[in-house]
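Reply to dn_fold:

You asked what the input looked like. This is it:
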Amino acid sequence: MKLANNYQQEEYKAFLNQIRKERQGTSNFAKVLFAFVLAVLMAVIVTVIMVENTNILNKISVENADASNGFFKFSRKKKDFVVPFAPRKQNILILGVDSNGAGTDIWEGTRSDTIMIVNVDPKTKTIKAVSVPRDSKVYLPDNHGVAKINSAHALGGVNLVKKTLKETFGIRIDKYIIVHDEAVEKIVDALGGVPIYVEKPMKYHDWAGHLHIDLNKGNTVLNGKQAVGYLRYRKDGLGDIGRTQRQQWFLRSLFEKLKSVDTLARIPEVLNVCKTYIKTDMSFYELSQYAGFVKGVDENKIEIATLPGAPNQKGYISYWILDPKKTQEVIDRMIYRDKQESDYSTFKAGIMYSPLKENEAMIIQDRLKDLGYEVNMLKITHLSHTRFVANKNQVSVEFYNWLQKKIPEINKIQFVYDPTENFSVGSDFTIVLAEG
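and this is what came back:
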């Protein structure tokens, strides 16, 4: 076994310490989370396909929007989009908005604590989802000035969010879905709970924020309140990094739950929640078209990424400062689907593993070496969930799918594109093996 040298281990520890230090000043919890919002999209369209020949689903709120210069200027690439659903790539904007308090309009003046663009390609039956950090520092159009991107919805509704994405990143939005934060708890309860592996004891009480988390390590079925606590927990020394990993794992668990047989009997409850707490500009027909598409998507062809950058504190305000070069790289890969020619045989492999996963790590290492790959190994005491991380742009989903055929042990684990190379272990791709 080729162990990582001391420098690599110290470098990784330094990285974690830096993250802990940078996150200490960030006090707000995200209320609607990346993974849950994507899962809600799936819930809506799976629900529609099940009831498309009935009158159960009334038309969900329909709005028109327009699109349109930014803090960073990213390249604009002209792409054609056709709606209703056609064999062309399309961008769906998903927003998770917070609450203004009891007795207020659930949509007016609310911030979007989750902003995600889901790019769907019906030709290849693939999905790529890009998360935009809510604290990203951008210029808001219509003379709103420099601010966090999550304030766009509060100041100008979904139209201003779409306009900001267009002028800042060159991303044209075709359709949108807005999810209110109360949908998280209610949809999980409507589904009868979501099974998940809780990777560590989670204890936290925020009396002012009415947040109480009391979860034990191990396999469990989360009810609505527990799911909210699991998704919002961040008192583990990793801050938003640990929380993002839990969001991704929760997505997969919820997706599996939606495909289960007993979900059908709960459709009326889910629909009631959707009609109240979800707003979209899609018609019933369009939703049914997306539903048919999602039914044929292989979960191994779902790729996720987050716009890269670094935190920055200015007075009492904490911003996420986007890295222009890497952000453009993510947009080109995930939205415009630019591909780079690569030689699979030249890749360097990395494996990070929890102590309890050492035997599995050794098996995968042997298989990778049999394929001719150099493998860097690093044992880490605390890892959250298993995933496959593409550290370089040349590492594609197609390569991952090819590798799965050679190494069945990595089948159906989350595919993440991360150009920051925080978990690269000096590798082009890294297989993270955790207990959960």
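The CA atoms of residues 32 and 341 lie 37 Å apart.
Hope that clears it up.
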